Amino acid sequence: MFTGIIKEVGKVRNIKDLNGSKEMVIACDLARQVEVDQSISINGVCHTATAVNDDSFTVQSVEETLRKTNIGALAVEDLVNLEPSLHPEQLLDGHLVQGHVDATGEITAIEQEGTDWLFTISFDEQFKDLIVGRGSIAIDGISLTVANEKETTFTVAIIPYTYEHTNLQNRQPGDAVNLEFDILGKYVVRYLKNRES
């Protein structure tokens, strides 16, 4: 479980193909706090550390993860959002994020508005009931609030601190981003659909 508060932007140091899956080495200062078998969020996708040293850690991504997230498109030198798993005594500063990506969206526009940035993201219509204005959403692991929503797009406002301390500063229109919808909203939608059937 995570909060969506990114602790560091790491860099992909190495990628190795493993017969359909991939092994990645992520360089970061956070590696000093990571332990083998610990969960860590990479661009909002929960991974397990398989090896650790002072300046990097290693994870493996299975085929399902590579297909359903933007992890499969990562290349050496790419920047990734990192967050270690939530501890019981830790403050919940963002919102509850599982690290289980529901879908990928596409950035369709990036606009600067004063000191803030507006990111507009398109998504598959089947998920429109899971996006609510002023509701929570995780984009590449970042806990954000939906500013407004339409049929197949929504916009989030990014404050300067978040822009400067995540990989959003390197994103461009056309990039794929991982989306995880609010877990409480998913349960509500599921409950209502079951009542209808």
- DSSP helix count? 3
Which residue ranges are poorly predicted, with pLDDT under 50 across at least 5 consecutive positions? none
The secondary structure category is: mainly beta
Largest sheet: 6 strands, antiparallel, barrel
Explain this structure to me?
The strands form two sheets. The protein has a six-stranded antiparallel barrel with strand order 1-2-5-4-3-6. The model has no long low-confidence stretch (mean pLDDT 95). The protein is mostly beta strands and 197 residues long. It is 13% helix and 43% strand. The protein has three helices and twelve strands. The chain has helices at 63-68, 160-164, 183-196; strands at 8-18, 21-27, 39-42, 45-53, 56-61, 79-84, 103-113, 116-122, 136-139, 142-149, 153-158, 176-181. A hairpin with a 2-residue loop joins strand 9 (136-139) and strand 10.
Topology:
Blueprint: E1 8-18, E2 21-27, E3 39-42, E4 45-53, E5 56-61, H1 63-68, E6 79-84, E7 103-113, E8 116-122, E9 136-139, E10 142-149, E11 153-158, H2 160-164, E12 176-181, H3 183-196
Short description:
This protein is mostly beta strands and 197 residues long.
What would the keywords be for this entry?
197 residues; mainly beta; six-stranded antiparallel beta barrel; 12 strands
